[in-house]
Amino acid sequence: MKKITLTIIAAITLIFSSCQKSFLDEKPLDFLTTDNAYITVKDFEASVNNLYSRVRNEFYSSGEQRPFDYVFGCDLVFDGQPATTRHTNMVAAYSPLSTEIPLIHWTSLYKIVAESNTIIDRLPASSLSQADKTLMEARAKFFRGMAYRTLVYLYGGVPLNITEAVSSKTDYVRATKTAVLEQVISDLKFAAANLPAINQVLDGQINNLAAYHLLSEVYLAAGQFQNAADAATAVISNPNVGLMTTRFGVKSSDVTKNVYWDLFQKGNQNRKNGTNKEALWVIQFETDVPGGGTVSTGIAGSYQMERHFAPQFLTFRLAGSSVQPFLYPISDYTGGRGIGWAIPTKYFSDVIWQSDFNNDLRNAPFNFVREFKVTNPAHPRFGQTISTINPPAGITVPRRDFYAFQSKITTPGDHPDGMFQDKSQLLLKASAGGTYSDQYMFRLAETYLLRAEAYLGLNQLDKAAADINAVRSRSNASAVLPANVNLDYILDERMRELGSEEKRRITLMRLGLVYDRVKKCNPYYNDVLTTYNLWPIPASEIERNNGAKLAQNPGY
Amino acid sequence: MKYRVLLRKIIALTFLQVTISAAFLHANAENKETAEGLGDKRSLVSGHNLADIVITGKVTDEKTKSPIPGVTVKVKNAETIAVTDENGNYKITVANEQAVLSYSYIGYDVQEKPVGSLKNINVVLKSSQSDLDEVVVVGYGTQKKADVTGSVVRANLDDFRNAPTTNVANLLQGTVPGLNVGQVNRAGATPSISIRGQNTLGGNQNVLIILDGVQYNGSLTSINPDDIASIDILKDASATAVYGAQAANGVILITSRKGANGRTRISFSSQYATQKPNIDLKPMARDEYLEHIRYLYYEQAFLAPDFTQPNPAFDLVSKVDASMKDAQGNLLPNDFSWYDDATKTGSIIDNQLSVSGGTDKINYLLSGSMTKNSGFINNDVFKRKTIRANIESKATDWLTIGLQSFGTFVNEDGVEPNFVDINLMSPLILPWDANGNLKINPFGTNLTNPLLNYQANDYDRHNYFFANVYANVQLPVKGLSYKISYGNNYRLDFKNISNQYDANLTGQASKETTTYYDYTLDNLLTYNKTLGKHSFTGTLLYGAISRENSYTRAYATGYSRLTLGYDNLQQGTNRFAISNAYKEALNYQMFRINYNYDSKYLFTGTIRRDGFSGFAENKKYGIFPSVSAGWDISKEPFFKVNWVDNLKVRLGYGVAGNQTSRYSSLASVGVGAAYVYGDGSATELGQQVNSLPNPNLRWERTTGANLGVEFTLFKNRLSGVVEYYDTKTTDLLYSVNIPVITGFSNYLTNIGQLNNKGIELSLTSKNINNGKFQWTSTLNFGRNVNKVVKLLGDLNGDGVEDDLPQSGLFIGQSTAVIYDYRVNGIWQVGEKIPTGYSPGTYRIVDQNGDGVINASDRAILGSSAPAYRISLLNNFQYKNFTLSIFLNSVQGGDKSYLAGNTPRLIRDDNSIRNNYLSGIDFWSPDNPNGKYPRSIVSATLNPSLYQNRSFVRLQDVSLSYKFSGKLIERMKLQNVNLFVSGRNLATWTDWEGWDPETNQGLTNDGRPVFKGYSVGLNVTF
């Protein structure tokens, strides 16, 4: 009995004291922590890869609406269906209280800043070689510079946060616009000096020319025109790049098209060892590959440009028949599966083309589509052409289901297989609407126009005209006289060359010209105010920053 | 002759007296039973019969002294059964004097009487409910209810067992003051459960559930309600402190049934119930739908300037979406109800079988059940099988070993049609094309036909396994025992699905598996010591818990054929895999001492130390002490109040915690596929910091006092408990919203202070109690007031604690405060309307009168928390009939229990195309007093209209009949009980929409709450 007692007591003692100290250590199983995620080159590459993804998300693919804030409310398009989310009723769209437009971009851009800060701050303690440290720092500074450049254009002088946050901070104050621009310039100069050359990076990766291009733009914003011209020259004079003047790429054998058209065919955007020498930085979309952005199983993840910019032919009818004249949705030059939300202003579709309507390659009928063949065999006018230039009786142009648009917003015949309902007829599924091609973030033609702007600022109109004409002559447009070069002309030329491809708001807010250009070119937004040359600081951010006062932009 | 009779009478009387005295002494010794029968001359019978002894007697209620009809009188280890008549009298034949009679009746303790030489045995049964000798589970032990010093309540399950529901939590709804159980609207679903007020801002709000002593974090749906013997609820900090860092939200202790000594009991029960929505809310039919389009175009459909006279030139058809017209442009002729097509009357079929019994050495319970609940929406099906084995054996004098185990197998195969989409489908469109095939995109948009979900091959299973083995060792020191228990939970969830219409019609199949395992190892030393009237119990606990979870999902898209479904994912063109996992561990010690003097002065002291892997590195352990005391005043000699039978006061004070969740103090870096450089290249991985670290993150501390008064009055006619509590929670776990400039939108930290005060009342009154008819009422009332006292402090230095308006938190207000714009009607046509607003949008009150509507015009409008909860149970018994009626109510008064309920229409493609619920009072120029906004363009601000959710519900009605008489005897049945019951039969509320309790208003994404009727049968052999 005594033995049993002892045994029991011993057993209890053992059980009561058998818990190891490591029992309560916490080690996550399916995620890393900042302690173990910033050590090797692979770690930092992963962080940089994420920055690419975040940029793609912010400017192209975060969803149905927000990427198009860079287009709506400007001089390029107007809203085919009024909605706050497409800037109709600007009071509501730009309300500091809105949890959409002002807040979402603010949040997304500052996340890019924060992730870049983490990379930069954690490099010194990492195991990287000095060369790798410099490379990673250059990459991170490129993205941080780009994010702050966007923030300062959109919101004015914003708080500068250039170190990794490791704890809460609620006492930010706004820096001056100049200070923010100086920070951006400093970051981009480092990036331009230390990023690899364009022919030494993978397709889609940032390089020193992309940095110089962006730096040129930011110098313009800072009013440093000579620096801007110099930065642009660093790009333009680089032998690895040039404007594409001859047919190239996957469909170059189609003799009915032209070189400007080639630039936007699916598969042609990437440099591919110099095949496309005009591309400086291309945002990558790859279908059905994790991380590729787009999927053939839905519109999610894609750049929904086709959906916005193409007309909603579904509801279009001609007088005399209730039958739909155009098959829809269809992967042809009626625009895929558009729903007519972003209708080009008359200024964009008509006014700017007047001087060279027939000779400008960019205005060729397959680049700026203005006429449509009736594709429905059941329609009495099957096979006939219906034109937006001379619309049939009873049809006013533009209207949501009938207007002219740039074909580069879609990929006729090139939708992914999963998006076709019947590929032999090119008929698409109801889930189409994404634009399944890589997208130019920066293209050399724009660099010429940036330098033209710099020369204009330096009052060197000859040089400005020469740069503009470099772009125009490629498209067979007549040359502009130096005397006719002014900012409005350059903005018009950007519209002609870049059009739907451009983040128009970046340009207009950089120049503080949203109000002026909307007044001049876009009668639809009749409630525009000078206030809207800047977006408001989100009200929630002002409230959250309770340790100091974040001043609101005037007029809000 | 006369003398002989007299003599026999004398002998019999003497004999009886002796026996009764002996029985009385015995009863006193056990302090449990009372045997009476003295002076009952009628019952004297005479005559010896060696073969069969006829015993007669009367059964009465201990407290009311009235006879109890319907009591089962049974001869132990034999098959003879009798039932008392209307006057409580019975007559039964036994074989010999060694026989033992057992008296049982629902709601009373079973009593046994040896026959001996008695011929007349009168029995007094004690009600098992309000009995102060009742034993309750208090966590790591049990206690006599009379000796409990904390706020511990045993739930009344008996009156609700017949309710048509499949989840035990639904049985608790409204029955315990301070225990708040929500409503469900899905088959087999578990409602929300909380105890008292909200003690946390951002921390865990779940009640801690202990099943047979083991922490249980599986779904309550896995527990067969019929296997549950009792549910005890620990409400105040002094009671919950034994569970330390996890106990701040209260504790529910569930105890499963076990076999009882004596005769084998075989029990079978079966129930069938129907389930229908308790409200008639449907989407619009054709005519109303078309009118709704007209009103979206009121500026064209009606004549300016008033827009009240129809415009004869208006062509409604031209405004209707193209998908609702034929090739000629005419409206389709249909008036189809997608809602009717997707729904049916739901049902519950429930069958239970259990066998239990025991001897001195071993007792056992084996049970099995099969339940099928088909919800109201097609394919909302819940099927459950459960098996249980509870076995306990007294292996030796000093060792008891036991096992509590169950397996539950839930099958939720099948995908219901997306109910939101059902509600927005147009009545003009049929789900099928001319060939009878389902249309893919009924609107021609990328919205797919909700009925395509029927095509899914879906395998949705949840398997729960539980086993707790324990050993209880009586140590050689008297009163000292050691118990070790090892509880194991294992769960295995499968979700396999394939559907040819998924993944943009290319077909998708997926296989998903979740495995979860935890164990709890508890070592418990208990020491009992009684010295005269002093008694002590000491409890020492050392335990550990470890949990791990693993999840894998593989899926493929792009199928040319889906014949093999999810069992051959390699048939898909694109294949993907995802997995995740976690681990966490707890380690804890607890010491408790209970002292009582003559059950008059009571004291409990507890201290618990908790370690948790999820606590931040600088704060791995927490300590949680508590003390409580009780005083039974009615036991004092000086206490002489006639009408008070029993009066006990208790006071407790303690600290309980709320754990951080695992990994929450770490700077987590999320990883995933990020980018692809170049056409045709491979995936590059990315990583991103997702949260800020906080190495000092610690548990929340809820410190609280609880004052309780228990009383029984007027000769047991009225009994009840009143409780008052006052708690404060500090170090609140809170994700403070911070400027996103940091790259993060919030920071998890410990802040501020939150107070909860409340009062709870439970009253039971025996209104009528005579032999034939009994009427008992129970009233429960609970009110909690919650107030934020401190948040981040005074950051702006104005001498006043700062609010956190961004997070909706204000000093001095409830956490449930509603801070928003106040709506004052709707802007009308012809009024001078500010920019950003238009007719049909809400007019917002300019609170500060500065002429502009902006963020500073938000104001405190009220609270979303209830003002009080109240319920009333009436129980009637007449002969063999029992009727119980339960009314439950949550009330808000003017400014509480509010919720945003604002259907709103702004004209766009979708609002024209989509269908909405019928009968919504939208504004239009010819309905200027319409309640809900409808406009052509959106307003700058679209605030909600906050409406009151108060309701009174006839929640449960149950009528049961207990068979008695010859037939039952002949069939050798112990109990046969037939019942009909109803749930949620009526709801009185001003709330518009699906249901106030589920907080679903006039939205397409709501679901109805069920009204159910059931019939059932319980048979015990």
Give a topology summary.
The complex is a heterodimer of chains A (556) and B (1021).
Chain A: H1 2-16, E1 32-33, H2 41-61, E2 77-79, H3 90-93, H4 101-122, H5 130-155, H6 177-194, H7 208-221, H8 225-236, H9 259-262, E3 279-283, E4 286-287, E5 293-294, H10 305-309, E6 342-344, H11 346-349, E7 368-369, E8 371-373, E9 385-387, E10 405-406, E11 420-422, E12 427-428, E13 439-443, H12 444-457, H13 461-474, H14 487-497, H15 504-511, H16 514-521, H17 539-544
Parallel strand pairs in A: 4-5
Antiparallel strand pairs in A: 2-6, 3-13, 7-10, 8-9, 11-12
Helix pairs in contact in A: 2-4, 2-5, 4-5, 5-6, 5-7, 5-15, 6-7, 7-8, 7-12, 8-12, 12-13, 12-14
Chain B: H1 2-30, E1 53-61, E2 72-75, E3 81-83, E4 89-94, E5 100-104, E6 111-114, E7 123-125, E8 135-137, E9 142-144, E10 152-154, H2 168-171, E11 179-181, E12 193-195, E13 208-211, E14 214-215, E15 228-234, H3 237-240, E16 251-256, E17 262-277, H4 286-296, H5 298-301, H6 316-319, H7 338-342, E18 346-358, E19 362-374, E20 381-394, E21 399-411, H8 419-424, E22 457-474, E23 480-499, H9 502-505, E24 508-531, E25 534-557, E26 574-597, E27 601-612, E28 621-632, E29 644-658, E30 668-676, E31 683-689, E32 700-713, E33 718-737, E34 746-769, E35 773-790, E36 817-820, E37 823-826, E38 842-844, E39 859-863, E40 868-878, E41 881-891, E42 898-900, E43 905-906, H10 909-913, E44 934-935, E45 946-948, E46 951-962, H11 966-970, E47 975-989, E48 1010-1020
Parallel strand pairs in B: 1-7, 13-16, 43-44
Antiparallel strand pairs in B: 1-4, 2-3, 2-5, 5-6, 8-9, 10-15, 11-12, 13-14, 15-16, 17-18, 17-48, 18-19, 19-20, 20-21, 21-22, 22-23, 23-24, 24-25, 25-26, 26-27, 27-28, 28-29, 29-32, 30-31, 32-33, 33-34, 34-35, 35-40, 36-39, 37-38, 40-41, 41-46, 42-45, 46-47, 47-48
- Kindly name the structural category of chain A: mainly alpha
The radius of gyration computed from the alpha-carbon positions of chain A, rounded to a whole number of angstroms, is 27 Å
Low-confidence stretches of chain A: none
The string of secondary-structure elements of chain A, in order, is: HEHEHHHHHHHEEEHEHEEEEEEEHHHHHH
* Total DSSP E strands of chain A: 13
Low-confidence stretches of chain B: 1-7, 9-49
How confident is the prediction overall: mean pLDDT of chain B?
87
Share of β-strand residues of chain A: 5-15%
Q: Helicity of chain B, in percent? A: under 10%
What is the spatial order of strands in the main beta sheet of chain A?
2-6
How much of the sequence lies in strands of chain B comes to over 45%
Number of contiguous helices of chain B: 11
Biggest sheet descriptor of chain B: 22 strands, antiparallel, barrel
Distance between the termini of chain A: 87 Å
**Greatest contact between two chains:** A-B, 106 and 108 residues
Which quaternary structure do these chains form? heterodimer
Number of helices of chain A: 17
- Annotation, overall tally of beta strands of chain B: 48
- The end-to-end distance of chain B, rounded to whole angstroms, is 47 Å
Shape of chain B: globular
Q: Profile the largest sheet of chain A.
A: 2 strands, antiparallel
